[in-house]
Design a protein that fits this description.
Radius of gyration: 19 Å
Bound molecules: zinc ion
Shape: globular
Largest sheet: none
Length: about 250
């Protein structure tokens, strides 16, 4: 299916390069982890890799929620550099939730790769995965985290599709990835909760402890809520942190 995009060709090129680059970087980190597991840690740490995959899955859900919260809450579309490329997609998504279903693979996943790649390079060059046990575990965790972050907006897109392949529907039904009903809670005004979009597993907990409203209130208090930060369109409705009128989080 051929699809078009309506953002700058330069950003498009950076997205494509980042998707390839992240794939290569994950391959290199994975190879370093393998060298450690097949070498010095052969008899002691094989269980670490799958454990790290699971811990990283939880961490990715948290990261997805945090970045999504930042994109929804602070700044506005006219900010230089970040505005058009990173903040606008978050705002557009509330106005037109099904817009994401018209995005191709590059537009859906490119931005996540752009922000992930610097961290992946740092891990590859700075973490001695093949010689230190802690470093091997950390590199495995990081690689899995980058991979799950990469998958996050794909899971998010699937949660908005009307027709999905049965195997994806099964993953959603078993709550292994973000499900449409769960994600609907976020798309209910005032759009101030259930920001996590990898699996959504952390949403009930973060909602209960008022994690995001507390951060928002703190930032507003410290910064004095300048217009460039909270955006001219913000009417303060998120301050109340009230549950949506028609959808109860569960
Ligand atoms: Zn949102
Ligand atoms: Zn959504």
């Amino acid at each position: 299916m051929s699809q078009s995009y309506d953002y700058s060709p330069t950003h498009r090129a950076v997205e494509i390069a980042s998707i390839f680059g992240l794939g290569v970087a994950l391959g290199f980190i994975g190879y370093e982890v393998y060298l450690g597991l097949a070498g010095p840690f052969r008899d002691q740490a094989l269980w670490l890799a799958p454990l790290m995959a699971f811990v990283a899955y939880l961490a990715a859900d948290f990261v997805s929620g945090f970045v999504h919260f930042m994109g929804d809450t602070f700044g506005h579309e006219n900010l230089p550099v970040l505005g058009q490329s990173f903040i606008k997609p978050f705002r557009d998504h509330h106005v037109d939730p099904r817009g994401i279903t018209r995005h191709d693979f590059v537009e859906t996943n490119g931005n996540n790769c752009i922000v992930t790649i610097p961290a992946a390079l740092l891990v590859y060059f700075l973490v001695p995965a093949r010689s230190e046990l802690w470093a091997n575990a950390f590199a495995a965790f990081s690689a899995w985290l980058f991979f799950w972050v990469f998958m996050t907006n794909q899971f998010h897109k699937w949660s908005h599709l009307e027709e999905i392949p049965p195997w994806i529907a099964a993953l959603q039904r078993f709550k292994l990835i973000l499900g449409p009903d769960h994600h609907d809670v976020h798309h209910t005004p005032p759009f101030d909760k259930y920001y996590c979009i990898t699996t959504g597993w952390l949403n009930p907990l973060l909602y209960k402890i008022r994690f995001f409203p507390t951060i928002e209130a703190t930032v507003r208090w410290i910064s004095g809520s300048p217009e460039w930060l909270v955006g001219p369109e913000d009417d303060g409705s998120k301050d109340a942190g009230a549950p949506g009128a028609s959808t109860n989080p569960s």
